[in-house]
Amino acid sequence: MENYDTQSNSAGWLLFVKLSFVISLAAMLAAIIFMPGDLMLKGYMGLNALFIVSSTIMVSKTLRDEHEGSKIINRISEAKANKIINEYSE
C-alpha cells in the first residue's frame, strides 16, 4: 500500500489563523456594540455579521471537500488506467 503525503500546516500558521479569526470577530463585535444607534440596528448588524461568518465557514468547507473529492476521483481513475495499461503491457 502506498503512503500519500498530506499537506500539513505549521503550528505557527494555525496559531495565526485562529488568532486572526478571534481578533477580527472581537473587533466586529466591539464595533457593533459601540456604534451609535438603537438596539434594533445593533441586533440587525449582529445577525448579519453572524450570517457572514457562518456562510464563510460553509463556503470554505465546501470548497475543501470538493477539492479533496476530486483528488480521490483522480486516484481511482489513475488506478483504473494503470490496471488497463498493465494488462495490455504483459
Q: Descriptors for this entry?
A:
about 90 residues; mainly alpha; 2 helices; about 0% strand; elongated
Description:
The protein is an all-alpha fold and 90 residues long. The chain has one domain. 83% of the residues lie in helices and 0% in strands. The protein has two helices and no strands. Helix 1 packs antiparallel against helix 2.
Cα-to-Cα separation, first versus last residue: 22 Å
- Please bin the fraction of helical residues: over 70%
Radius of gyration from the alpha-carbon trace, in angstroms: 23 Å
Report the uncertain regions.
Answer: none
Number of helices: 2
Structural class, from secondary structure content?
Answer: mainly alpha
Please trace the helix and strand order, writing H or E for each element: HH
Give the CA-based shape: elongated
- Topology, number of strands: 0
pLDDT averaged residue by residue: 86
Outline the biggest β-sheet.
Answer: none
> In percent, how much strand structure appears in the residues?
under 5%
Count of all domains: 1
Secondary structure blueprint with pairings:
Elements: H1 11-34, H2 39-89
In short:
The chain is an all-alpha fold and 90 residues long. It has one domain (11-89).
